[in-house]
Design a protein that fits this description.
Strand content: 15-25%
Structural class: alpha/beta
Number of helices: 13
Shape: globular
CATH topology of the largest domain: UDP-N-acetylmuramoyl-L-alanine:D-glutamate ligase
CATH class of the largest domain: Alpha Beta
CATH architecture of the largest domain: 3-Layer(aba) Sandwich
Length: 440
């Protein structure tokens, strides 16, 4: 795998690209900040992984993969392109397993879906998945490279920021089942239209083998996708995997089979996520009954709508990211909360381009049913005549007086925190709010 003979005594336990999280025995892959012409990089730090080989050695690296001469006693493999080498490691790891692989894409819900599939399938066989939200040009091959040889089920997120990024990642993953969760106006600023986003998501089909299955929402227009096998899910009774809320449970029909399960939360977006998960379990031939039995134990990943109870208040932490549709879902769920007051702290939604003001105005209209609204970020700068429930606007999180806000809340309040990643998640806003509420 390393290009080193066994006589050199190198035993590699894992693969790492970050010395801060490197574990003993890892191969350290020194990446540059340039992903090449195929992908867009949001990072422009200019840092070079070759500069961190001594940190890697101190952290316990077993070997190095570098593109420049380095001063180290560790076994070292020199390559022209370390990112391409990482992709090669990913291809090797994918090719050696006998199990099935699942690729997950969509405008929202990828991490929740991936974690839920991991949790359910790991009860049935050896399962491996992406770490965190590793769904881009370095995260996908890294997650593949870490996949154990005895994996029965591999679950990987496939994301994109720009057109042309999903297909090469899917062709690397070679998913036996590829699922498109939804098509929403995330990254519409880069792609220009919902139709362009739809077409980009459908590119995931190119990684499917001949007998692969594309799992999609029943209302997704697919156009000409050749002889690709399709399995649909949704609230439409014509869907192959049809589901609805039935009291406090979800009822799902697949052909003549009926399954019922509880979810850890309500909301149509969670219903749709659960239906996508059940559809994938069915598509790979795993035990759907067993998956349904464990559905009630599933939790939401941090920052994706998980709930925190702090000093009599309920924080709904949906701070990881936002787009206009997921923001609407979050507001609907907030309105449904049995709370004294429902308070929405809304961060701007990024990457909307020329659609930004229109979509931010729409969100403010949708927030009229909550008891209080606070906005953060330039996307909401247009607010001139706020409604009675408007508690104020801040240009940035740095301007937000968390202590004063916390003191304005009361026991019984439900507080939604939602915005694009760079607004609340990157600044650990929820953690700061939690601390402030604990001190009241």
């Amino acid at each position: 795998m390393l290009g080193l003979s066994s006589s050199e005594g190198t035993d590699v336990a894992g693969v790492s690209i970050d010395t801060r999280t490197l574990s003993d025995g890892d191969l350290f892959v020194a990446l540059s900040n340039d992903p090449g012409p195929r992908f867009h990089s949001s990072g422009t730090s200019g840092r070079d992984g070759n500069e961190f080989v001594h940190d890697a050695a101190a952290a316990g690296a077993a070997a190095l993969l570098v593109t420049k001469p380095v001063d180290s006693n560790l076994p070292t493999l020199h390559v022209d392109d370390s990112l391409e080498a990482l992709w090669s490691l990913g291809r090797y790891a994918r090719a050696r397993i006998q199990g099935q692989v699942i690729g997950v894409t969509g405008s929202a819900g990828k991490t929740t879906t991936r974690q839920w599939l991991e949790a359910l399938l790991s009860n049935q066989a050896v399962t491996h998945g992406s770490t965190g939200s590793y769904n881009n040009h370095w995260g996908v091959p890294l997650s593949l490279a870490r996949m154990p040889a005895d994996t029965a089920y591999g679950v990987f997120e496939i994301g994109m920021n720009h057109a042309g990024e999903i297909r090469p990642l899917s062709e690397l993953v070679v998913p036996d089942v590829a699922v498109i969760l939804n098509v929403l106006p995330a990254h519409i600023g880069q792609l220009g239209s919902l139709d362009a986003i739809r077409k980009e998501k459908l590119e995931i089909r190119h990684g499917l083998p001949k007998n692969g299955v594309l799992v999609i929402p029943a209302d997704l227009e697919v156009g000409d996708i050749g002889d690709t096998r399709v399995l649909t899910f949704g609230r439409d009774s014509h869907a192959d995997v049809y589901g609805r809320f039935f009291g406090d449970r979800v009822e799902v029909r697949i052909g003549s089979q009926l399954f019922r399960y509880k979810l850890g939360g309500l909301g149509q977006h969670l219903l749709m996520t659960s239906l996508a998960v059940i559809a994938v379990v069915h598509a790979i031939g795993a035990d759907v009954n067993a998956a349904a039995e464990h559905m009630a134990s599933l939790t939401l990943p941090e920052g994706r709508g998980n709930q925190l109870k702090v000093n009599g208040r309920l924080i709904i932490d949906d701070s990881y990211n936002a787009n206009p549709v997921s923001m609407g879902y979050a507001l609907s769920s907030l309105v449904a909360q049995p709370s004294t007051r429902r308070i929405a702290v809304l961060g701007e939604m990024l990457e909307l381009g020329e659609h930004s003001e229109e979509m931010h105005q729409k969100i403010l209209r949708e927030s009229e049913d909550v008891d209080a609204v606070v906005t953060v970020g330039a996307g909401f700068n247009f607010v001139e005549n706020p409604t009675d429930n408007f508690w104020g606007h801040y240009d940035s999180v740095g301007d937000f007086d968390i202590k004063a806000f916390a003191e304005k809340t009361a026991p019984g309040d439900a507080i939604l925190i939602k915005g694009s990643n760079k607004v609340f998640w990157a600044s650990k806003f929820v953690s700061q709010l939690k601390t402030a509420l604990e001190k009241i």
